Amino acid sequence: MVKYCPRCGAQVPDEARFCPRCGFDFSTMQQNPQQPMVPQPTPQSMTPQPTYYRAQTQSLIDTAAKVSRYIPSLTKYGKILLLLAIIFEALTTILVTSVLLKSLSQIGASAGTFAPVVLLMISAIFYLLTPIFSAFTPGISINKFSKFIGIFTFLLLGITYIIIAKQSSSSYISLPSSVTFYGVTIYTSITPGIIILIGAILTLLTTFIDFGSLVNPIIQMIGIILIYVYTYGGNFNFESMLWGVAIAIGVIFGIIPSFYRGNQLPMIISLGNSIALIIFTIGMIITGVSQVSASSPPSGSCGLVSASYGVFIAAGALGIITGVLGILDAVFILIYTLAYKTAPNM
């Protein structure tokens, strides 16, 4: 015969006085012999507690469920603010080129001198139109028409810089290699214009010619990097000094479906997008801080110069706000992706 220890539930011989496991004294039960000895569950039979990993996973899922409700709003308003920031950047360039045209007309400059300034203004107008067509596209996707206008903008910009460099080379005055005024950069060297033009042509080729799902993105990435090298610090940087890096990362992750189509693909693509968004928005904050730190024009400056400064500051302020919202949005997307292994509804 056996009996059970009322303290730990261990089986012990009927004649045993003490439990060999916990040391319980069975003689103390003689005072109440009618009390049934109900076997207690052993520690081995108890339901195991959730592991640390399961607890952390559940916590991540709970957090993702909470933040997912904010992602659509953050994405929507972030895009609107980015659109406004880019428009203000473009307006700054238009105002600055207006000042240049006014100055050239006052000194009676030749038509050839006017040409690159007019081209620069036209480039800014197309740049202003670039984000408008993507304002109402779902999520963080970019409209094809926006891409085409953006490429055309950089084509014009490259040609503009080449013409300016040609005119500068014939000047008897020694000029610096570049001059920047409220984000409007003028290069007197021909190299930036050629590099930007090559980058725009390469990117444009992938729009009309299909080189394959692997080659096309690589050509696009090369073209974007070439454009980015000479535009990251000016008013053609989509309000982010890291825009080229962010797009290149997005393109790299876009190549993955060419050789992997497993169940984890939606998660991988979403992770790539969130990383690219974080980098882009960090660049927005850097750009915005740089813009709002610009020096005010000297007293007595014409109204167009003062307007250029005001619009430039506004672009910077919008860039900082959008950057903060964008980082928050990107972090929420990242949390959701890690929890649910797919992209959130944006």
TrEMBL record:
Output the superkingdom of the source species.
Archaea
Membrane-spanning regions, if any?
Answer: 80-101, 113-136, 148-164, 184-204, 211-230, 242-260, 267-289, 309-339
Signal peptide (from-to):
none
Read off the InterPro entries from this record. Zinc_ribbon_dom (IPR026870)
Q: Which residues form the Zinc-ribbon domain?
A: 4-24
- Keyword terms of this UniProt record: Membrane, Transmembrane, Transmembrane helix
Q: Does the keyword ATP-binding apply?
A: no
- Its name, as the record gives it, is Zinc-ribbon domain-containing protein
Organism, as annotated: Acidianus hospitalis
